[in-house]
Amino acid sequence: MKNKKTSNTKTSGKQVSAKSSPKKPAKNVVKKTPASKPTSTIKKAPPAKQIKSAPVKNKTQTTTASTFENTLATIKSAAEEKKAHDVVIFDLRKHAALCDAQVICSGDSDRQTQAIADSIIASMKKNFGSRPLRIDGKQSGNWIAIDYGDIMVHIFLTEVRNHYNLDKIWPQKAVMQ
Predict the structure, then answer these.
(1) CA–CA distance, 63 with 52 (Å, rounded to integer)
(2) CB–CB of 44/89 below 8 Å?
(3) How far, in Å, CA of 7 to CA of 78, rounded?
(4) Which of 35, 77, 84, 134 has the least CB density, counted as fewest CB within 10 Å?
(5) Which structural domains are found in the chain, ordered by start?
(6) Rounded to whole angstroms, what are the CA distances from 37 to 34, 40, 43, 118, 172?
């Protein structure tokens, strides 16, 4: 007797129900056998580009006195070239780990402080090939900070310099002549 819902028929010696069809092997299946192993076609990504960063100064390395003094003299003359006044250089090698020296100077207007900053940056690039690690405050011109790693340059408007009184942070014996 045949059931309408399921009918069993013989196909090649196997019983198959009318609801389901015979199972077919999946296509594109890689069979792993000991004799043949699939090869990998995954490409390795190229190495990431190296970002050039400013060299970090090791405190055990000391800048030669003549190079250090020449660098400070270049900064001072570039500032004075643009009529900066009250230029003070602090030798902080014995007083601080932040940097070896700080140069503080003043200008009478924001355009003058910006011109002083541009002059210092250009002369350092021309004479030593060095560029600042960071420049801050150049847009406003009130207080421009130029970071050369071991030397920090601060260019103030006269009123701002008097307000912050950065000169009083360091001892007077740190002032270089």
Answers:
(1) 22
(2) no
(3) 101
(4) 35
(5) 65-176 (3.30.460.10)
(6) 7, 10, 18, 65, 77
Task: Report the residue count for the chain.
Answer: 177
Tokens 């002369």, residue?
123
Contact 90, 176 (CB under 8 A): yes
Q: Which amino acid is at 31?
A: K
Q: What angle do CA 98, 131, 96 make, to 5 degrees?
A: 10
Residue 145 and residue 137 in contact, taking contact as beta carbons nearer than 8 Å: yes
What pLDDT, on a 0 to 100 scale, did the predictor assign at position 174?
Answer: 77
- In sequence order, which residues have a C-beta less than 8 Å from that of residue 160 and are 6 or more positions away? 142, 143
Q: What pLDDT does 168 receive?
A: 87
Q: How confident is the model at residue 95 (pLDDT cuts 50, 70, 90)?
A: confident
d(CA 41, CA 132) in angstroms, rounded, equals: 46
Distance CA 6, CA 2 (A): 8
Give rounded-to-5 percent helix, strand, coil for the chain: 30, 20, 50
Q: What stretches of the chain adopt beta strand conformation (E)?
A: 8-11, 14-17, 85-91, 101-107, 134-136, 143-147, 151-157, 175-176
88: Cα separation from own chain's centroid: 30
User: Would you say 175 and 88 are in contact if contact means Cβ atoms under 8 Å apart?
Assistant: yes
